[in-house]
Amino acid sequence: MSISWVTVLGATGSIGVSTLDVIERHPQRYRVFALSGHSRMDVLHTQCLAHCPQYAVVADDAQARALQSRLRAGGCATEVLFGAEALEQVAAATEVDVVMAAIVGGAGLRPTLAAVRAGKRVLLANKEALVMSGALFMGAVKASGAVLLPIDSEHNAIFQCLPTDYARGMADVGVRRILLTASGGPFRDMSAADLVSVTPQQACAHPNWSMGQKISVDSASMMNKGLELIEASWLFDVRPAQIEVVIHPQSVVHSLVDYIDGSVIAQLGNPDMRTPIAHALAWPERLDSGVSPLDLLAVARLDFRAPDLQMFPCLRLARDAAEAGGTACAVLNAANEVAVEAFLAGRIGFTDIPVIIEQTLERMAPESVQDLDHILQTDRRAREHALSWLSRHR
Ligand code: NAD
Ligand code: MG
Predict the structure, then answer these.
(1) Whose alpha carbon is nearest atom 39 of ligand 1?
(2) Which H helix or E strand runs over 42?
C-alpha cells in the first residue's frame, strides 16, 4: 500500500484535530507533510512533535521563531514558515497528495485554491472558500483535474447518495431534488423575543456537534445552512430551487437525495466529523474512522420539520444571494464574517447579524465575477460596509 502525504490547513481547529485523529489510526497509509495553525500554538507544537511534518505554517514571524525554537529543543526537525504565501506553498507542493482545507472563513480561499490548481485531492471543509468563489473554484477543479471531496457532513452525505456519474447532470441521473438536513442549532425552539438577548456562549453550545466558534454561531443563526445551500449548488451543479432545507434535530440523517422514481436515498451516522473525513481520505475505499456504530434503537426516532425563515432570516438571505449569483455570495459571506466576529466580541446582538448582512447586500449590487482579484476586492469592500454599519451603531 502506498503512502499518501497530507497537508492539513487549519490543523489546530476542530476539523484539523479530527483529521489528525483519523490519520493517526492509519500510519501505514498517511503521513503528514505540513500543518498550519493561526493560534493555539501549544496544540500545533504537540501536533508537530507527534507527526514530525516537513513544515508547520503559522501567522507571523514572532510565532514562527517561538515555535521553531521550541521544536528544535524537543528534537523535532520541522521547519516553521509563516504567512499567506507559505500556506499556498505547502498546499501546492509537489510532494503532497492530499490537502485538508480546514481554515475557517475567507482566509482559507487562496491556499485552498492553490491546492485545487495544483491538482491535489482536496478535502473541502472550508465552505466559505467555495461560497465566495463558486464558478471560479469549480472551473479550477475541472481545469486541473483535482479530486474535490466534501467534508461538510451534509455534502459528504449527498456525495455518497448520488451515483458516481452525477457530473453528467442531475436530470440525466434522475435526481429530482436534494434534501439538506439542518439540526436547527441551539435556538431552534426559542421564541423570537428571546432570540434578541442570546449570548455568544449560548450560541456556541451546539446541541449535537462540537465545532469552532464561527461555524457554531452560523449554525445558531442558520447562516451555516445558507452557506451549505450555496456550497451544494456549486459542488453538485444544482439550482438553489432544487435544494430543500429540512430541520432534523437529531443530526443522524446527514442529508438525502430524492430521485424521480420516488426513491429517496439518505446517509446516516453518528454526528462525528471523523466519518466524512475518513470517507474523503479513503474514497473510493473505506477506512476505520474511530466513530462508534450508529445505534438506531438508542436514537429511536427521527423528526423532520420545515425551517422558520422569519426567525432565521439568514437562510433566506443566503438563498436570495445564491439566486442572484455573481458577487452576491462573496458579499453575503464577508458581511457574515464581520457580523459573527462582532457578535462574538459582544459588540452587537444576535439578531443584528442578519441586519448587517442584508444592509451590506443592499449596498453592493451583484456584479459578474471576473477573476480572483475581483472576488478578493469584493470581499474587502463588503467587510468595509459591514464595519461602517458597526461604527454607526455603537
Ligand atoms: P476552528 O475555528 O476550530 O478552526 C479553524 C482553523 O483555522 C484553526 O486551525 C485556526 O488556527 C485557522 N485559522 C483561523 N483564522 C485563520 C487565518 N486568518 N489564517 C490562517 N488560518 C486561520 O474551525 P472548524 O470548526 O475546524 O472549521 C473549519 C472549517 O470547516 C470552517 O470553514 C467550517 O465551516 C468547516 N466545517 C467545520 C465543521 C465542524 O464540525 N467543525 C463541519 C463542517 C464544516
Ligand atoms: Mg454541515
Answers:
(1) 211
(2) helix 41-51
Inform me whether the pLDDT recorded for 1 exceeds 90.
no
**Residue 12 CA, closest ligand 1 atom number:** 9
Rg, the chain, Cα only? 20
C-beta of residue 17 within 8 angstroms of C-beta of residue 45: no
Contact 177, 262 (CB under 8 A): no
- Residue closest via CA to ligand 1's atom 23 equals 212
The overall average pLDDT reported for the chain is 97
Q: In testing the pocket of ligand 1, which one of 15, 122, 383 has its CB within 8 Å of the most ligand atoms? A: 15
Q: Each residue of 140-162: pLDDT tens digit? A: 999 999 999 999 999 999 999 99
Q: What pLDDT does residue 159 have? A: 98
Beta bridge partners of 122: 99, 148
Atom of ligand 1 nearest to the CA of 209: 40
Nearest atom of ligand 1 to the alpha carbon of 11: 9
For ligand 2, the distance from its centroid to the CA atom of residue 300, given in whole angstroms, is 23
**Domains of the chain by range and CATH?**
4-151 (3.40.50.720), 156-271+293-309 (no CATH), 325-394 (1.10.1740.10)
pLDDT, one tens digit per residue, over 205-216 is 988 888 999 999
Question: What is this structure's pTM?
Answer: 0.98
Ligand 1 mean position to 103 CA, how many Å?
A: 4
